[in-house]
Amino acid sequence: MTGISTLDAVLAGVMLALLVGAAGWALYSGLAQRSAARAARDDNGRLWAMLSASPALAMTVRGDGRTEASGKLIDWLGLSEPPRSLGDLDPGHGGIESDSAAAFTQAVTAAQRGGRPFRITVRARGSQRLLLAVGDRAPAALMAPGGVLVWFFDATEMQGEVHRLTDERDRLHGAFEALTGLIEAAPMPMWYRMPDLSLAMVNTAYVRAVDGGDADRTVDRGLELIEGPVAGAAIARDTGQPQVAAVPATIGGQRRMLRVHDVPLGDGGIAGYAIDIDDLEQARSGIKRFGVAQRALLDRLSAGVAQFAADRTLTFCNQPFRRLFAMRQEWLADRPEFDRVLERMREAKRLPEVRDFPGWKAERRDWFRAAENAIEENWHLPGGTHLRVVAQPLPEGGLLLIFEDRTEQVQLASARDTLLRVRTATFDNLFEALGVFAADGRLQLWNTKFRAVWGFDIEFLNQHPRVDALAREAAGRLANPARAALIGELVRSATVERLQRGGRVAFADGRHFEFAAVPLPDGNALLTMIDISDSRRIEQALRDRNDALEAADRVKTAFVANMSYELRTPLTSIQGFAEMLHGGFAGELSASGTDYAEAILTSVDRLSVLIDDVLDLTQSEAGVLERGPVDLERLAHEAAEAVLPIAQPKRIDLAVEVQGSAGAVTGDPQRLKKAVEHLLRHAVGGLPEGGRVLLHVDGDAKRARIVVSDDGPGMDADTAARAFDRFAQGQIARGSDRALGLGLPIARQFVEAHGGTIALVSEPGAGTLVTVELPR
C-alpha cells in the first residue's frame, strides 16, 4: 500500500512539474508575443507617421491592374473617388492629362513586365500642379509578384526653380558674353592668371601693348606687360586682398606710368588690369603746382581766405585771414575743425553778435552741403568793422571762405550817401538857378530856383526837354526873345567844345541874370543863373556916384591948386618982411624979437614945403609929367644933397651907393627926384640922432631899383600897411620934420605915374626899407 502511494506521488509530482513547466512556457511565450506585437504596432505607427509626413505619396498597382492610393493623392490627381485601375486615371475620369496618362500607363506596364524603374512627370487635368512619378517593382513582402509601387512627388516648385535656374543660366551666359566683349573692347590691358601665376587669358589692348600679334601667341609666349609682374599677383593670391601698384612700362616705344591692379578670384586665379596714369600724373603734378601758385597768390590778396576739407578741417588760410581774425600760426597748424574756428573767431570778437550762437553756427555748417552756387553774407562786427563773406562749396565736398574787409568802402559809401544828400539839399536850396544838361542836350537835373526863375511847369521839366525846346519856351519871358538862343549856345559850347562861357540876359519883367555854362567831368554841362538885378541897380548907382565924386575931386583938385598958388603970394610977402625984420632994416631987434623972427622964417619954410607938396599932389593927379632921360646916379646924389641940411643937425649918416647897373630911365626928372627926396626925408625924419640912412641904386636890363633903408625904430604891421595912405598919415606920423606925412603918398604917386612899383618893409626895432622899381 505504501509503495503504490509513493509511486503515485512521484508520478503525480512529475505530472505536476510538467504542467507547471508547460504553463510557465506558455506564459513566457504569450508575454514574448505580446511584447513583439506591441513592438510591431509601435513600428507600424512610426512608419505610418513617417509615411504621412513624407513629401511623397504612394500608389500601388497590382499585377491584375488594381490600384490603391491615399486620399491626399486622390486630391492631387483631381479625382472624385479612389481609382480602382489604371484606366480610372485617364482624362475621361478627370485624372492625368492625356499625354501624361499614356506615358504613365506605358511606364507602369514596363515596370510590371520587365521590372524597369521609371521617373516621369505628369500633370493633373485642370490643375497647375506638376507631379513627379518615381516607380519600381514592389517588394514581395508588400504584394504578390507583378505589383508596382509608385511614389508621387509634388514637383511644381521644383519645376519653377528649374525654369528660374534656366533663366538665370541664360542671363548669366549673356552677361558673361557681354563681359567678355567688354573686356575685349576695353582700352586698358586686362589679363587672367592661373593659380600658378601663369598667363591664361589677355585682351586685345594687352596684346597691342606688348606687340604680341594675337592673344594665343601672347599667352603661349608669356609676354609680360611690366617688369616683375608676379610680385603683386603673388601677394594678392596669398593674402586674398586686391593689390595696387604704380609701375613704369614701355608701350609703343614710350615710357608710361601704369597703375596695375591684381584682384584675387574665388578659383585661385588672379585677374589684373592696368590703367595708364601718365597723363593723370602729369595733370596731378600740374594741379599741384597750380595749387601752390594759387596759395601763393591768395597769400598776397588783401582779402582773408580760408579753405576747409570735406571733413571740415582747415587746410589752408592766408596771412590776411590770420591777421583779420587774430589767429596764431601754431594753433592753425593743428588743422582745427570748422566749429572750432568759428568759436575762436567769436572769442576774438570777430563774429556778429547773435543770440543763438549754436543755431547760427549750425546754419553756417550747412554751407558744406549747399548747392554749388556761392553764398554771400555781410557781417557787422563789434567796433564798426564790416566784412563781406563769400562761401563757395567745393566739388570735392570742402568749403572756400573769402572775407573782404569792406569797412572803408562802407564808410565811404555812407559818406558818399551823406554827401549826395547834402549835395541834393544844397543843390535844391541854392540861391542860384542850376540846370544840368546831358551830352545830347537834354535837361537832366534842375533845382527849385531854376524852375521858379523861368516859371516852367513841372510837367514840362519832367519830360527832360532838349535845350532848343527849353530855349523856345523861355524866349517869351525875355526882354529880347532872340537872346534865348544864348542858352543853347552856352550848353553846346560846354558839352561839345568843353569850353566855359557866360553871358547876361534881361527878362521882360526887368530882372537881369548872369549865365554861365561849365563843362562837367562826366561830359555833361552845368548851366548856372544868378540874379544880378540888385547888383545892376547898385552898379548903376555906384557909377553915377563915382561920376559925381570924380567931378567933385576934379573941383577939389583945382581948388587946392588955386589955393596953393594963392597962398604962395602972401607967404612970399611974409617971408620977405620977416627976413627984413630979422636983418635989422626996421631997427635993431631985441633978443626976443630976433627969436620971433627966426620962428616966423622957420614956419614959412615949412609952409612953403607943404604948399609944394600939395601942388605936387595936384599936378601928379592931373597927369602933368614931362618925359625924358633920367640919369639915376646923378638923381641920387642931387636928392641926397637936398636932404643933407636936415640930416646934418641930427648927426645922421646919409650914405649913397650907386651900382654901375643903375643906368638911366625915361621919365620926369623933377618928379623922380622929389620922389627920392621924400623917401629920404621920411627916413631922416623918423630917425633919432646918430642914425644911418642908405640910398642904394642898381638895376638890370628891364628895370631899375632904388632902395632907401634906415636903422630907425621901424613900424608895426598895421602902420606899415597904411604908410602910403595920404588920409591916414596924421595917425602914423613919426616926427615933426615930416611935412605933415605926405612924403610917402607923394612918392608912391610919382612912382606909379611912371609905371613903377613901391613897397615898404618894416618891423618894430628893425628899421624900415622902401624899394622902388622903375621900368627902363
From TrEMBL:
Name the source's superkingdom: Bacteria
Q: List each coiled-coil range.
A: none
An example molecular function term from Gene Ontology annotations: kinase activity
Q: Which InterPro entries match?
A: HATPase_C_sf (IPR036890), HATPase_dom (IPR003594), His_kinase_dom (IPR005467), HisK_dim/P_dom (IPR003661), HisK_dim/P_sf (IPR036097), PAS-like_dom_sf (IPR035965), Sensor_HK_Regulatory (IPR050736), Sig_transdc_His_kin-like_C (IPR004358)
What EC number(s) would the UniProt record show? 2.7.13.3
The Histidine kinase domain is annotated at 562-776
Keywords linked to the UniProt accession: Kinase, Phosphoprotein, Transferase, Two-component regulatory system
Q: What is catalysed by this protein?
A: ATP + protein L-histidine = ADP + protein N-phospho-L-histidine
User: What EC class does the entry list?
Assistant: transferase
UniProt-listed Pfam families:
HATPase_c, HisKA, PAS_7
Q: What is this protein called?
A: histidine kinase
